[in-house]
Design a protein that fits this description.
- By secondary structure, the chain is an alpha+beta fold.
- Among the domains are: 74 residues, no CATH class; 232 residues, Nucleotidyltransferase, domain 5 (2-Layer Sandwich); 198 residues, no CATH class; 270 residues, Nucleotidyltransferase, domain 5 (2-Layer Sandwich), CATH 3.30.420.10.
- The strands form 13 sheets. Strands 10, 11, 12, 13, 14 and 15 form a 6-stranded mixed sheet that branches. Strands 28-29-30-31-25-32 form a 6-stranded antiparallel sheet, sandwiched between helices. A 5-stranded antiparallel sheet has the order 19-18-17-16-20.
- Strand 1 and strand 2 form a beta hairpin.
C-alpha cells in the first residue's frame, strides 16, 4: 500500500507492507509502533508528529487535530489529490498465496479453497495452480533422510574382512593411569570385540597397529576393510598412510550420521550398560570403571549374540564353546594370602574381586583402603554374592582373621584443669584403658604418632617379600612435616610455601600433637585446639554418621601455627584442624575441575596500593575467621572424616565418623567453595569482579558515598580494602554483617610484608625485613658477612660447575640449596627486584648445584643481610603514570639464550620479570625485540586491569622504554626483512599495538634503563643507582645507622669492634653459612665524623657494631662520635702544610726535568752537522725527505 503524507507543502509517498484490507472501513489507520519496530524515528512536539527514515532522513510532519494525528486528503490543493491508497485486487497464483501466507503447504491451501476458488478471501487464479520448488521452504524445513532399518550390504564372511571402529570418551572420571577413552574394534563376521583403553585420542593409531600385527602374527589374518566415522583420530596422516601401505580399504560414515556406524555404536551401548550395572551393584567407586570395562568386554566375547544365531563371539572365532566356570560376581569380597612381617599377624587380608588377569593368569584385586589394584594368585571368595557374608569354615580353615588393634601407640592427652569445659566442647583425653571409638583401618590417621606398631595394618597390600617399617623420612612425608625437595621445583610452589612461611613464626611451630603437648606452652596449644573444635561445632561443620562399607575415610590432624606481627613477635596461638586431602579420590570425593581458587596477583596488590596512596584513600586490612568453613558441601558430595587421635567429641558413638557439611581446610575443593561464597557476597553489596584479575573486586561510588572507586583485593581469607573515608565504615559494616571479621585496622602487614604510608608525600612502602631476618635465621646465614651486590659481576655460573665428582656430591648432599632458593623467591617477587636476576640465574642449577653455585647463593643472603631494611616505595603525586622499561642482555651468553626483563612503575616498581628465553637469538636486535614483546603483553594486561577499575585514570598510549634503536624500528614496520624474516610471527604481536596507539616505544640510554639491573650482574654503584630509581629505599631506623657506635661513659676510652673470633662458639656454632671472603677491618678515626647514610641505597653495613667489654661501673649507651673544634683546626692546618710541601716537590721535579731536556737537545744538534732541522722533520743536502712530519726549507 502507498499512503501520502505532507512534506514541505507537497505529498510524500510512503510504502506500507503487510496491510490488512477492510472494504467497509472509510479511513486508513497507520500504526506508530510498526514504524518504530522497523527502525523509523518518531518525534512528537508542539508542531506535530515528525517521521524520520532509518537513515535519519526527514519524511513528513503530521499535525494534531482534535487529539489525533491525521492527514486530510480532501484539501482543495491540486497537489494533494484525494488518493488515500492504491491496492491491486488482481487474482494471485498458488505460489503467491503460498508466499503470502507464510509458506503454508500447497496441499493445505488447495484443501481450504471455497467454491469461488478463494483462500480465506484471497482470489486464486485457477489457471496458475503450479507448485514450483520453493527454495526458502527447502532451507527452512528440510529434514534428515530416514535411515533404512534393513541391511543393505552382505555381512562379512571371515574374521578380519570388515572391522567396525569407534572411540568413546572422555570419561567424566579418569581410571587409574589417566585412562579416559576406549577404542572399539569390532569384527563384523564373528562379533569379536577388542576394546583397549586410552589416555588420549592420538593413541588410537598405535593400538590399531598393535592389533593389526597380532591378527597377522597369531592367526595369519590380513585385515581387508575398516569402517569408522570421520573422527580426527581416524583421518590423521599416519592412520591414512598406514592403511594405504597395508592395502586396507577405508569406509567412512557421512558426517552427523552415527547410524551408519551402528554396530560400533550398539556395542558402546551394551558395554557401558554393563559397566554402570557392575558399579551400581558392587558399590565400588566410579574410578574403577576401567576394571569394570575390561570385565564387561570379556563377558561380551563369551556371551551369546543374536546376530550369531546365539553363539558367542569366542565360539564364532575359534570354533569351540567357552568355559566360564571361574567367573565370580564383579566386586565380590575375597581374602588374599599375604606375606606378613609378624609371625602372629594375620595371613589374609580382605579385598574386592574386579576380574581376571589373563596376562598373568591371576585375579585382579581392588584394595579399598589404599585405592589400588593388584594381581594375586591365592584368593578365597567369601561369598558368591556382592554383599559379604560369613565365610564358611572350609574357606577359612587355613587362614587367620586379622585381630582388632588398639591405639596404644597413640600418645594420650592429659586434660588441663583451668576450669570446666562446656558440654559441647571436645574432651582432650583418651584414657589408655579405653578402646578407640573406631576400629583402626588403613585409612585412619596415624600422623600424630612417632612410631608405627608392627601389627598396625598401615599398608596391607600384598607383597612378594616381608614388609619394611617406614623410615623417619617416609613418616615425615606422611604426616606433612617433611619435604622431598620437589616442592620447590616450580615458582608457584616457591610462592605458596613461603607466603605461609612469611606469615608464621619460624622455629616455634610444633610438628604434631605430641610435640605440642611436650612444650612449656602446651597449655596455650590445648586451648587453641579446644577453640578450633568449638568453632567447628558452632559452624555446624559436620554430622555424626556410620560410614558406608565402601566409604573413603579421610584422616585429619592439627596444624599448629604461632602467628607473629610485622616484627616477628608472637601474637596468637592457632591450631587448625586440617583434613588430609591427599587421600581424596578424584571422581569420588572431588572433581578435578572444581578445585581452583584465584588469589590476587602481587602486581595487582601493589598497583591498587600505589593508586590508593596517590589518591590519599584509606587502606584497611582484614581477614575472615575460619573462612573455608563458609564454603558448604554441594549435594552429592559425601566426604567422611575420621577425628584426630586424642580428641573425644561429645556425642560421637563408637564406629561413627564425621560427615562434613562445611569444607574443612585441607580438602581439595575447600578453596574454591570459599571463593564462590566470597564472590557472591561481594556481588550482593554492589561489587563487580575484575575480568583481568578474578580476586580483585571494585565498585563505583556515588557522590553521596564520597565518589571515587572502592576496591577489595583478596588472597584466600586476607583482604585489603581501598575506599574513601566516608564509605570505608559502610564497607566494613557490610562485610561484618556477612562474615566474622578480624579487623586489622589500617593496612600495615599483609602477606608477610610490612606496609607503611607517608600521607604527606602520598607514598606507600613495602618491606620484608622480618621475613628476610627469619630466612637468614632459618638457613643459619644470620652471621654471614655482608656484601654490596647480590652477584659478583666477575663470576660466570655454568653447568660445568655442577657437582660431578663424588667429593662434590658429598659436599652438597646436606646443603639446602633448593629450599633456600625457594625462600629467596618470595622476597624476589615481593619487594626486592634487585635480587630477581640472581635468583632466576641460580634456579637454573637447582637440579644439581655445585659448590660454586652454593657460594653464589650464600652471596645473595649476604647481600640481603646488609640490605634487609630496604623498602619498595610506590606512589607519589597525581602525575605518576604507568611506565614500562624493557631490556635484554643481548648476545652476552654462550648459548645465545637471552635474558628478557621488564619493569613497570607507578612511582615505583609494581611489576617486574627476568626470564631466560627458550629460543636462540641471532642478533642483539632480535633479543631486544623479543624482550619488547614480553613487556608489551604485561603492559596491555596492566592497562586493562587499571582502566577497568579506575576508568579515565590512565591514558593511552603506554610508554615503554627500550635501549635498542633496531628493536624500536622493528616494532613499527618490517624494514629489516632480510635480517628478521626468521623471527616467529608471535613476536610481531607488538606491532599491532604500536600501530593502533596503545603503546609508545621510546628510546632510553642503557645507563638509565631500569630493567638493566634484571638482566645482568652489575657493579655496586650502578646497581644502587638503578634500584633507587625503581623505588627501593632504605627504611631508616636507629638500628640501621652505621654512624652509631657503642661508647662507654668515659669519653677518653678507645672504642673498637670485636672480631668474629671473640664471639662465643657455644652460642654461635660453626655451620655452612660462613662466607669465604675475608672481612676487611673497619677503622674509625677519632677526629673525623663518620658519614651518614644517604637517602637511597647506601652501601650495606657489615653487621651491627658491637660494644667492647666494660667493667660493671661503666655504662653502655649509643652516642655519636664527639668532634673537638681544637682538634679539627689542628687537622686542617696539618693538611694545608702537607699540600704545600707536595706542591713544592712537584715544582722542583719539573725544573730539573726541563734543564735535562735542554741539555739533551744541544747534544743532538751538535752531532748532526751535515743536516739541518725544520720542525720535526729533517732533510739532507739533496732535498730528500729523511723522515718526519716537517716541511723543507732552503
Amino acid at each position: 500500500m502507498v499512503v501520502n503524507a505532507p512534506y514541505k507543502g507537497k505529498w510524500q509517498r510512503i510504502h506500507l507492507l503487510n496491510v490488512l484490507y477492510l472494504p467497509s472501513f472509510r479511513c486508513t489507520l497507520v500504526s506508530i509502533s510498526r514504524f518504530v519496530s522497523r527502525g523509523f524515528g518518531v518525534l512528537i512536539d508542539e508542531e506535530g508528529l515528525h517521521l524520520h527514515a532509518p537513515d535519519n532522513e526527514y519524511l513528513a510532519t503530521i499535525p494534531c487535530k482534535n487529539g489525533l494525528y491525521r492527514v486530510d486528503h480532501t484539501a482543495p490543493d491540486s497537489a494533494i489529490a484525494p488518493m488515500a491508497f492504491i491496492i491491486e485486487r488482481n487474482k494471485v497464483s498458488l505460489y503467491d498465496a503460498h508466499i503470502r501466507n507464510g509458506h503454508v503447504s500447497y496441499d493445505y491451501i488447495k484443501k481450504a479453497l471455497d467454491s469461488d476458488h478463494k483462500y480465506y478471501g484471497l482470489q486464486i487464479d485457477p489457471l496458475k495452480m503450479e507448485e514450483p520448488l520453493c527454495k526458502a521452504c527447502v532451507k527452512g524445513k528440510i529434514s534428515r533422510t530416514p535411515i533404512r532399518k534393513e541391511r543393505i550390504s552382505d555381512r562379512a564372511a571371515n574374521f578380519g574382512d570388515i572391522l567396525h571402529m569407534d572411540l568413546w570418551g572422555p570419561s567424566p572420571v579418569r581410571a587409574p593411569g589417566g585412562l579416559q577413552y576406549t577404542f572399539t574394534i569390532l569384527d563384523e563376521a564373528t562379533g569379536w570385540l577388542h576394546e583397549p583403553q586410552l589416555r588420549t585420542k592420538d593413541q588410537a593409531f598405535e593400538r590399531f597397529v598393535v592389533w593389526h600385527s597380532q591378527c597377522f602374527t597369531q592367526n595369519g589374518i590380513h585385515i581387508k576393510m575398516v569402517h569408522s566415522d570421520r573422527g580426527g583420530e581416524f583421518l590423521g596422516n599416519n592412520f591414512t598412510s598406514f592403511l594405504e601401505r597395508e592395502g586396507i580399504i577405508r569406509r567412512l560414515t557421512v558426517h552427523d550420521t552415527p547410524e551408519h556406524n551402528g554396530m560400533a555404536e550398539r556395542v558402546h551401548w551394551t558395554i557401558f550398560n554393563t559397566v554402570r550395572t557392575l558399579l551400581a551393584e558392587s558399590g565400588l567407586p566410579p574410578f574403577l570403571w576401567g576394571e569394570a570395562h575390561k570385565h564387561a568386554v570379556y563377558i561380551y566375547n563369551h556371551s551369546p549374540r543374536s546376530f550369531l544365531q546365539y553363539k558367542s563371539p569366542f565360539e564364532a572365532r575359534h570354533g569351540i564353546r567357552p568355559n566360564c566356570t571361574f567367573l565370580r560376581p564383579w566386586g565380590t569380597r575375597v581374602l588374599v594370602k599375604m606375606n606378613a612381617d609378624n609371625k602372629l599377624a594375620a595371613r589374609a587380608v580382605e579385598g574386592r574381586y574386579v576380574g581376571h588377569d589373563f596376562v598373568s593368569n591371576g585375579v585382579r584385586i581392588y584394595w579399598p583402603d589404599c585405592h589400588t589394584v593388584t594381581v594375586e594368585r591365592t584368593v578365597i571368595y567369601l561369598t558368591d554374592g556382592i554383599v559379604a557374608g560369613e565365610p564358611s569354615n572350609e574357606d577359612l580353615q587355613n587362614f587367620d582373621l586379622p585381630p582388632i588393634n588398639d591405639d596404644d601407640n597413640i600418645p594420650d592427652l592429659i586434660p588441663f584443669n583451668d576450669g570446666p569445659i562446656d558440654d559441647r566442647s571436645p574432651d582432650l583425653l583418651t584414657p589408655q584403658s579405653e578402646e578407640s571409638d573406631l576400629e583402626p583401618t588403613r585409612t585412619s590417621n596415624d600422623d600424630e604418632s612417632n612410631e608405627i606398631s608392627p601389627e598396625s595394618p598401615i599398608d596391607n597390600r600384598p607383597r612378594t617379600q616381608r614388609q619394611k617399617r617406614p623410615s623417619a623420612k617416609v613418616r615425615a612425608l606422611t604426616d606433612g612435616t617433611g619435604i622431598t625437595g620437589e616442592e620447590f621445583d616450580h615458582a608457584d610452589n616457591f610462592l605458596s610455601a613461603n607466603i605461609v612461611y612469611a606469615t608464621s613464626q619460624v622455629g616455634n611451630n610444633p610438628a604434631n600433637m605430641k610435640e605440642a603437648l611436650a612444650r612449656p606452652d602446651s597449655q596455650q596449644w590445648m586451648l587453641a585446639m579446644v577453640e578450633e573444635i568449638t568453632r567447628l561445632e558452632a559452624r555446624n561443620s559436620w554430622e555424626y554418621v556410620y560410614p558406608p562399607t565402601d566409604a573413603n575415610l579421610i584422616s585429619a590432624r592439627f596444624v599448629y601455627n604461632l602467628k607473629g606481627d610485622e616484627h616477628g613477635n608472637p601474637t596468637r596461638y592457632r591450631a587448625r584442624l586440617v583434613a588430609q586431602g591427599y587421600k581424596q579420590v578424584e571422581g569420588l570425593d572431588y572433581n578435578f575441575d572444581d578445585i581452583f581458587a584465584p588469589v590476587a596477583r602481587l602486581e595487582s596488590v601493589r598497583a591498587m596500593c600505589a593508586i590508593a596512596a596517590i589518591e590519599d584513600d584509606e587502606l584497611v586490612q582484614t581477614d575472615i575467621k575460619s573462612a573455608f568453613l563458609y564454603g558448604r558441601m554441594e549435594p552429592g558430595e559425601d566426604v567422611y572424616l575420621v577425628p584426630p587421635k586424642g580428641i573425644k567429641l561429645p556425642g560421637l558413638k563408637p564406629g561413627q565418623v564425621l560427615k562434613l557439611r562445611a569444607c574443612l581446610y585441607g580438602l581439595k575443593q575447600a578453596g574454591r567453595r570459599w571463593y564462590q561464597k566470597l564472590r557472591d557476597a561481594l556481588r550482593q553489596i554492589g561489587f563487580t569482579r575484575s575480568q583481568f584479575d578474578h580476586a580483585v573486586f571494585y565498585r563505583r561510588l556515588s557522590p553521596a558515598e564520597g565518589s571515587g572507586t572502592a576496591v577489595i583485593f583478596c588472597h584466600v581469607d586476607d583482604m585489603g580494602l581501598k575506599a574513601n573515608k566516608k564509605y570505608m565504615p559502610q564497607l566494613i559494616a557490610a562485610l561484618r554483617s556477612r562474615f566474622e571479621l578480624s579487623e586489622g585496622g589500617r593496612i600495615h602487614y599483609l602477606l608477610g610484608m610490612h606496609i607503611t604510608r607517608d600521607r604527606e608525600k602520598r607514598t606507600i612502602s613495602f618491606s620484608q625485613s622480618a621475613y628476610i631476618n627469619r630466612i637468614l635465621t632459618r638457613y643459619r646465614f644470620d652471621e654471614v658477612r655482608t656484601v654490596t651486590t647480590p652477584m659478583d659481576p666477575n663470576v660466570a655460573l655454568s653447568k660445568e660447575q655442577c657437582a660431578i665428582s663424588e667429593r662434590q656430591k658429598e659436599e652438597m648432599k646436606d646443603k639446602p640449596y633448593r629450599e633456600a632458593l625457594g625462600a629467596l623467591m618470595y622476597a624476589s617477587v615481593g619487594t626486592r627486584p634487585d635480587i630477581t636476576y640472581a635468583v632466576s640465574t641460580l634456579a637454573k642449577f637447582s637440579q644439581n648445584p655445585g659448590p660454586t653455585h652454593w657460594t653464589a647463593l650464600k652471596r645473595v643472603f649476604a647481600y640481603l643481610r646488609g640490605t634487609q631494611h630496604y623498602t619498595l616505595t610506590l606512589g607519589g603525586d597525581s602525575s605518576e603514570v604507568l611506565t614500562g622499561y624493557c631490556n635484554s642482555d643481548g648476545m652476552s651468553r654462550p648459548d645465545r639464550h637471552p635474558i628478557a626483563a621488564y619493569v613497570f612503575t607507578i612511582g615505583g616498581a609494581i611489576s617486574w620479570s627476568s626470564k631466560r628465553q627458550d629460543i636462540v637469538c641471532l642478533s642483539t636486535t632480535e633479543a631486544e625485540y623479543i624482550a619488547l614483546t614480553h613487556a608489551a603483553k604485561e603492559a596491555i594486561w596492566l592497562y586493562h586491569l587499571l582502566d577497568e577499575v579506575f576508568p579515565e585514570r590512565f591514558k593511552l598510549p603506554i610508554t615503554v622504554y627500550s635501549d635498542n634503536q633496531g628493536a624500536i624500528a622493528l616494532s613499527k614496520d618490517d624494514r629489516f626483512h632480510t635480517r628478521t624474516k626468521h623471527i616467529d610471527i608471535r613476536f610481531h604481536f607488538v606491532r599491532q599495538y604500536v600501530e593502533d596507539g596503545t603503546l609508545n616505544i621510546t628510546y632510553l640510554p642503557t645507563d638509565r634503563m631500569l630493567a638493566d639491573a634484571l638482566t645482568k650482574a652489575l657493579p655496586g654503584p650502578q646497581l644502587r643507582k638503578l634500584a633507587g630509581a625503581i623505588g627501593i629505599q632504605t627504611y631508616k631506623t636507629q638500628a640501621n645507622c652505621a654512624f652509631l657506635v657503642s661508647m662507654p661513659s668515659r669519653p677518653t676510652q678507645r672504642y673498637h669492634q670485636p672480631s668474629l673470633s671473640s664471639r662465643s662458639d657455644a652460642a654461635n656454632p660453626p655451620s655452612y653459612n660462613s662466607y669465604s671472603r675475608r672481612r676487611p677491618r673497619q677503622r674509625y678515626h677519632p677526629f673525623v665524623a663518620q658519614p651518614t647514610l644517604p637517602e637511597q641505597l647506601p652501601i650495606p653495613t657489615r653487621g651491627p657494631i658491637r660494644p667492647t667489654t666494660t667493667t660493671p661501673r661503666q655504662t653502655q649507651a649509643w652516642y655519636p662520635i664527639p668532634i673537638s673544634p681544637a682538634k679539627t683546626m689542628s687537622t686542617i692546618a696539618f693538611m694545608g702544610l702537607a699540600i704545600l710541601t707536595i706542591t713544592a716537590i712537584i715544582c722542583l721535579h719539573a725544573y730539573v726535568l726541563t734543564k735535562f731536556m735542554l741539555l739533551m737537545n744541544q747534544i743532538v744538534k751538535g752531532s748532526q752537522a751535515s743536516t739541518y732541522n725544520s720542525g720535526w722533520g729533517s732533510y739532507d743536502n739533496n732535498n730528500n725527505n729523511a723522515g718526519g712530519w716537517g716541511n723543507t726549507g732552503n
